[in-house]
Specification:
Blueprint lengths: L2 H16 L9 H79 L1 E4 L6 E3 L1 H13 L1
Antiparallel strand pairs: 1-2
């Protein structure tokens, strides 16, 4: 029932009270009860509208959070994959350094006594340059 219609019903109930041609046992309490029921109905409809709106807002927020959670899970999986790749590269680099040290060591013949220059193979010099670049 609309507010206008409820106001009309209240007005009619008041008009019935002042009407003198009605029988003395006219059920005014029933009319009052009907008006009260209409008021309660309108109040409940307002509450239902409020809660439906709140529910729609909550549903939207839940959907936003679910999308965020999906993104976080995806980001976590990507982070784990990148971390694993990074660790593999770290181990690979460690092995390369060890091999470069081995090449440098096995390719070193000694020192030239007169010049103090370290005598190495070409490969040992390349390994030494690669190792110096990391420091």
């Amino acid at each position: 029932m609309s507010k206008e219609r409820l106001e009309k019903a209240k007005l009619m109930a008041e008009m019935l009270r002042v009407e003198t041609r009605l029988p003395h046992d006219f059920p005014f309490d029933l009319v009052d009860w009907l008006v009260e029921q209409a008021e309660q109905k309108q109040s409940l409809e307002t509450a239902v509208d409020f809660y439906q709106s709140a529910l729609r807002d909550a549903d939207r927020r839940v959907q936003e959070l679910e999308e965020l959670l999906t993104q976080i899970k995806y980001d976590k999986e990507a982070h784990i994959a990148l971390s694993e790749k990074y660790l593999k590269k770290q181990l690979q680099n460690k092995r390369y350094r060890e091999y470069l040290e081995l090449i440098k060591t096995t390719g070193t013949y000694g020192k030239d006594i007169s010049t103090g220059e370290i005598l190495r193979t070409y490969e040992a010099n390349l390994a030494d340059e690669a190792l110096e670049g990391e420091e």
